[in-house]
Every structure is written in structure tokens, then in C-alpha cells.
Design goal:
- The protein has 646 residues and is α+β, with helices and mostly antiparallel strands.
- It has four domains: 3-176, Threonyl-trna Synthetase, Chain A, domain 2 (Threonyl-tRNA Synthetase, Chain A, domain 2), CATH 3.30.980; 194-244 and 332-536, BirA Bifunctional Protein, domain 2, CATH 3.30.930; 272-325; 549-642, Rossmann fold, CATH 3.40.50.800.
- The chain is built from 20 helices and 28 strands.
- The protein has an eight-stranded mixed sheet with strand order 11-15-16-23-20-19-17-18, with helices on both faces. Strands 1, 2, 3, 7 and 8 form a five-stranded antiparallel sheet that branches.
- Bound molecules: zinc ion (ZN) (2 copies).
Length: 646
């Protein structure tokens, strides 16, 4: 947890204490910090609405003013269960009804792990921490919204009220945040995306979360791909192309199945003729086994054990038979497994490494419909993906080169503020949350840390947030208006290449497993373009602008039109996205149209310009910059595009 997250999570405690004061029967579930603040899930008969916020905030203010200490108390499991049953957890005192969600959370805490309470005043909550020292450290806070959420995100569970808020060190920072939100509303990528005709969501025919890129949006997509391809080529990457789906076996090997199954689209069963019938029969047998299993629960212990073993054996046989029937295919949720098979397709020696396989791969993820959000949360994503297979000796250099690539991109897009969030493992999670390879964790984490420190890049280290198979780095950038986005993730993977049996022949003639770096500096087109729309407020730099140049004529005489059309032809011959507006509308209207369409450069041409061999240049949002010779202007445009000037 960062300091700000710690503060915000502490504010969630204050929120819960305030709600408990107002509605003592409230049942609380979880209250974590989130991107822009915090929330607490509460089960309560009264439907909390924004009209209740002033009253809740007033209670919160009292608690902050009292400057209560966050007092930690370690308890044993029996005590905790007794307290939960007495309704004492996430409450101000004992109650008639048990603290039901806390009771369930207790069951989820593994045996042997410490159980702790945090007390502020009379409010006691089950929590591992960390928190700020005192409630007074929550400098400024505000409740922002209320939504419904299923307990543990599962539709089968009861629906809770999720109260969102945000908190800051002081009021100045909070005011800045809300000003920024106002500005962000004006720059909403969904609004600007529609106005500029960049993409649509055709939920009726295509599906929610599956954007259709319109011609103008596709221009941006392709410019980004071009940038990535050029940059990666220069850095020694090679490109591959892989299908959008694969057999179940691939994802079982990678571990996506079963662990990531929830985020994948359901499988496609490819069964032929008799196979379908046979599968139904086998599945019916499965159901039969389940019934038998239920029946034997009443038997004596010895008999039960024998029958259980017999059922397990039959279960296994049926499972194997089902597996042999036809095939299951899945849409890919990540590109890595395909790339691993590309690596495996040919033998490799240490001389071939590092091998950097790049692909703008399309992935499909089954996000819950409630989670979908414009381009930011979608179900089909085009990822600026690459996997770098290298030896441990090559790691530092490769990892550093990836960081350099990020910095290069940040400069092009004018991201002045960024941070690398380095997530490491935690010893207690080994074998559970993390692959049980203590030596490899230490080695790779040390390597990553060394590179980050020696490169002088801005980073924070956060323990216990790594990926299952290795440390990761989330790259956070701030848009022009100061809003933070996680744009991409780098991961170091020392486990999955082993599961795929990937090897290279080393100098000493033995086969070794390569390390794999997953990196996607430009993230996905969807998220990155969503971010760029906000960052630029839709006013894209010349190289990215869907319509780069519009030639506007002042008059309709034939020679003038020919002169203007020639400018357009010359620009288009050089791949510049130039259009002409030769109509009879007054100049003012033509310029207004071009400004609305956010055309980057307008070339206004009248009789006098033509006679002098000039064009008058006007920049979107900046106005007239004067007349210049035609050839000079065209050369300037080409240069700016080539250099991807901001
Ligand atoms: Zn807490
Ligand atoms: Zn990957």
C-alpha cells in the first residue's frame, strides 16, 4: 500500500464507524482503497442515497476531529469468532445479530495467520492494516457516490450497497482533485470519441465491450501501430502473428485454466456426429456419480471410504473419456501462451537470445457487464505485446531497454509525470499466492530493483502485489489534467516458460529455461487511445490527427480551385491525410467546420495567396499563423509528421 492508499483505507474505517453510529444494524463486508479513493460495502435495510451523505460526513468529521488512535489488537481465532458471533466486529458494541460478513472473512484467513482488530474509539473492525496513526491524519475527505455490488463480486451472493469516497492529506489537494474531475468530464473519451467519430459500441448487433473503430479512429490505431513497429524494429524485435483462439490444452499448460477461467469467454465445443451424443451420456454418468456420492454420506466410515475411492476412480475415467471427445477451443485472453509455442517451435541456443517476439495481438476478456466502461474496460483488446526470452545474464540489459522504450514514448506523447509501481512478493505468500521458488523470487526482484535504481527512473516498491509467476511493474502516467492511469504492465516470468518446457542450449551444452519479460508499453489500443483522448482533449498532434490538413478555398474560380487541389494532391502523395473544402460556404463557416472537426492544420487559399505562390496557415485552436510559400509549408508539415512533433 502506498501512503495515500493507507490514508484512504483508514478513511474507509472512519466511514464505517460513522455509518455504524447512524445505523447500528449495518453489516459491513470489505473496505479497500481504490484508484481514486476508497469504498466500504455495507448491507443495510435503509437505502443510502447521496442525500444521506451530509449526515454521514458530519459523523465522520466528528471522528476525525476526535483524533482517535488506530489501535491494533492481535486476537486468537476463538476470540475473533466469538466477537463476530456477538455482532461486535465492524460495530460500536455487541449486537443481537452476528457480524455475518466478518465471520465469513475469518473463515478465509488461513490457519496460522495472525488475526488482528483495529479499534478507533468504540468502533472495532477486523483488519490486517495498515492504517494511519490517528483518525486526524485523514486530512480531507468526501463521499462521492453509492452503487450496488455483489458480495465478493459474485452474482449468487447478496447485493450490498457500495459507498464510495475519496480522501487526501489536505483540503488543497482535494480541491485540485475535484477541479481536475470537472475538466476530465469535459474531456470524457466517450463524449469526444462520439463527437469526432472515432469509434462506436454496437451493443445490439456486435456486443457490449466490443468497439468498432470507425475510419477516423482507425487512423489513430494504425499510427500507434506504426510507431510501435518502428520502435521495436529498431530495438531488435521480430514480429509474429498468432490466431485468436487455441485449444484448451494451451491454457491448461499456461495455468490460465482454471485460474483465469472467469475472465475468459466460455469455450467452444467442437464435437462431431456421435461424439456429441457420447458426451451427453458421459455427462449424465457424472450427474449419477454426484447422486451416489450424496447417498453414501449416510453409510458407516469404512464402507464410506471404500465407496468414495471407487467413485473417485470412476470419476477420473469418465473425465478422461470426456477429454478425448472432440476439442474445446477458447478465445485467447493473453498472447503469452501462443508466443511460448512460437518459441518452442524451433530449437534455440544461447546465441539466439534474447529473442524478442512482438505482436499487436487481439485478446478477448469476459469483463462483467457492470465493469464495462467506454474504451477503458472492454471485451476485445488490441495489445502492444511482446515477450522477451533471455538468459539471466541478459536480463538487466533487456529490462533496462524496455524502460528506455517507455521513456521514449512518454516524451513523444508529452507525459511529464509518470511512476513505475514495482510489485514484489511476500514470503508468507509463497506456494499460495506466488510460485514457490524463493531463490528465483529473490534473484529476479533484486535484478529488477537494481535496474530501476541505476536507471534513476521514478518508482515505488510495493510488497505483496506481484503476479503469480514473478514480479511486475505497473506503469502509471498522469494525463495533461493530472489524472492518473495505469497504462501498461511489465512482468518478469520465471515460472511459465518452465511449465511449457521452453529451453535453450547454453554455453556449457546443457538445456536451460529462459526468463521471459512480458511488456506492453502502449498497453491496449482501447485503453491507450481512451487515455490520449483525455490527455489531448481530442486535439491530437499532427502525426496522430485523423484529418491532418484541410485546404479551404476563398472563392470558386477555376485557377484557384486547381491551385488548391494541387496542394491536396501533393500532400496525399506523401501520405498526409489532407482533404479539400472547395464549397461556396463563407470562409468563416468553413473554418468553423474544420475547428469543430479538430482538423490540425488549415490551409486557407485566396486569390492573393495563389498569385504569390503562398498558402495561409491556420492551426486548430491557435488561429492564423500567416502566409508562407506553398513548398515551405508542405515541407514543414512532412517534417513535423516524420518527427512526431507534439
Ligand atoms: Zn483497515
Ligand atoms: Zn504476456
Amino acid at each position: 500500500m502506498t501512503d495515500l492508499e493507507r490514508l484512504r483505507h483508514s478513511a474507509a474505517h472512519v466511514l464505517a464507524a460513522a455509518i455504524a453510529k447512524l445505523w447500528p444494524d449495518a453489516q459491513f463486508a470489505g473496505g479497500p482503497p481504490v484508484d481514486d479513493g476508497f469504498y466500504y460495502d455495507v448491507d443495510l435495510k435503509h437505502r443510502i442515497s447521496p442525500e444521506d451523505f451530509p449526515a454521514i460526513e458530519a459523523e465522520m468529521k466528528k471522528i476525525v476531529k476526535e483524533n482517535q488512535v488506530f489501535e491494533k489488537q492481535v486476537v486468537n481465532r476463538e476470540q475473533a469468532i466469538a466477537d463476530a458471533q456477538a455482532g461486535r466486529l465492524a460495530a460500536l458494541g455487541n449486537r443481537e445479530v452476528a457480524s455475518k460478513f466478518k465471520l465469513e472473512m475469518l473463515k478465509d484467513i488461513p490457519e496460522g495467520e495472525p488475526i488482528s482488530y483495529f479499534k478507533t474509539g468504540d468502533f472495532v473492525d477486523l483488519c490486517a492494516g495498515p492504517h494511519v496513526m490517528r483518525t486526524g491524519n485523514v486530512g480531507a475527505f468526501k463521499l462521492t457516490s453509492v452503487a450496488s455490488a455483489y458480495y465478493k463480486g459474485d452474482e449468487k451472493n447478496p447485493q450490498l450497497q457500495r459507498i464510495y469516497g475519496t480522501a487526501f492529506k489536505n483540503k488543497t489537494q482535494m480541491d485540485e482533485y475535484f477541479t481536475m474531475l470537472e475538466e476530465a468530464k469535459k474531456r470524457d473519451h466517450r463524449k469526444i470519441g462520439a463527437e469526432m467519430g472515432l469509434y462506436v459500441m454496437d451493443t445490439e448487433y456486435v456486443g457490449p465491450g466490443l468497439p468498432l473503430w470507425l475510419p477516423k479512429g482507425t487512423v489513430i490505431v494504425e499510427e500507434l501501430e506504426k510507431l510501435a513497429k518502428e520502435t521495436e524494429f529498431a530495438a531488435g524485435y521480430v514480429r509474429v502473428k498468432t490466431p485468436h483462439l487455441a485449444k484448451e490444452k494451451l491454457y491448461k499448460t499456461s495455468g490460465h485454466l482454471p485460474y483465469y477461467a472467469e475472465s475468459m469467454f466460455p469455450p467452444m465445443e467442437l464435437l462431431e456426429g456421435e461424439e456429441e451424443k457420447r458426451r451427453e451420456e458421459l455427462e449424465a454418468e457424472f450427474v449419477g456419480l454426484g447422486k451416489e456420492h450424496a447417498e453414501i454420506l449416510g453409510l458407516g466410515q469404512k464402507e464410506r471410504a471404500d465407496r468414495l475411492a471407487e467413485i473417485a476412480a470412476r470419476h477420473k475415467v469418465i473425465g478422461e473419456q470426456i477429454e478425448k471427445l472432440g476439442e474445446r477451443y477458447y478465445l485467447k485472453a493473453m498472447n503469452c501462451p501462443h508466443h511460448h509455442r512460437v518459441f518452442a517451435a524451433e530449437p534455440h541456443s544461447y546465441r539466439d537470445l534474447p529473442l524478442r517476439l512482438a505482436e499487436y495481438g487481439t485478446c478477448y476478456r469476459y469483463e462483467q457487464s457492470g465493469e464495462l466502461f467506454g474504451l477503458m474496460r472492454v471485451r476485445s483488446l488490441n495489445m502492444n505485446d511482446a515477450h522477451i526470452y533471455c538468459t539471466p545474464e541478459q536480463f538487466a540489459q533487456e529490462f533496462n531497454a524496455v524502460n528506455e522504450m517507455y521513456l521514449k514514448y512518454f516524451k513523444i506523447f508529452g507525459f511529464d509525470k509518470y511512476q513505475m509501481r514495482f510489485s514484489t512478493s511476500a514470503p508468507e505468500g509463497l506456494g499460495k499466492k506466488y510460485v514457490d521458488e524463493p531463490a528465483l523470487w529473490k534473484q529476479t526482484e533484486d535484478m529488477v530493483r537494481d535496474v530501476l535504481v541505476s536507471s534513476g527512473i521514478n518508482f515505488v516498491e510495493v510488497a505483496n502485489e506481484a503476479a503469480f509467476y514473478g514480479p511486475k511493474i505497473d506503469v502509471q502516467v498522469w494525463s495533461a489534467i493530472g489524472r492518473e492511469f495505469t497504462i501498461a504492465t511489465n512482468q518478469v516470468d520465471f515460472a511459465v516458460p518452465k511449465r511449457f518446457g521452453l529451453t535453450y542450449r547454453d554455453k556449457d551444452n546443457t538445456d536451460k529455461t529462459p526468463l521471459c519479460i512480458h511488456r506492453a508499453p502502449l498497453g491496449t489500443h482501447e485503453r491507450f487511445i481512451g487515455f490520449l483522448i483525455e490527455h489531448y482533449a481530442g486535439n491530437f498532434p499532427l502525426w496522430l490527427a485523423p484529418e491532418q490538413v484541410r485546404v479551404i478555398t476563398l472563392g470558386t474560380e477555376e485557377p484557384l480551385l486547381n491551385y488548391a487541389k494541387d496542394v491536396v494532391t501533393q500532400l496525399r502523395a506523401q501520405q498526409v491525410r489532407a482533404e479539400g473544402d472547395y464549397g461556396t460556404d463563407p470562409m468563416k463557416a468553413k473554418i468553423a467546420n474544420a475547428e469543430t472537426a479538430k482538423v490540425h492544420t488549415m490551409l486557407v487559399i485566396g486569390g492573393r495567396d495563389m498569385e504569390a505562390g503562398n498558402v495561409s496557415v491556420r492551426l486548430h485552436g491557435k488561429g492564423n499563423v500567416g502566409a508562407k510559400p506553398k513548398a515551405e509549408v508542405i515541407a514543414g508539415i512532412l517534417q513535423a509528421i516524420k518527427e512526431r512533433q507534439a
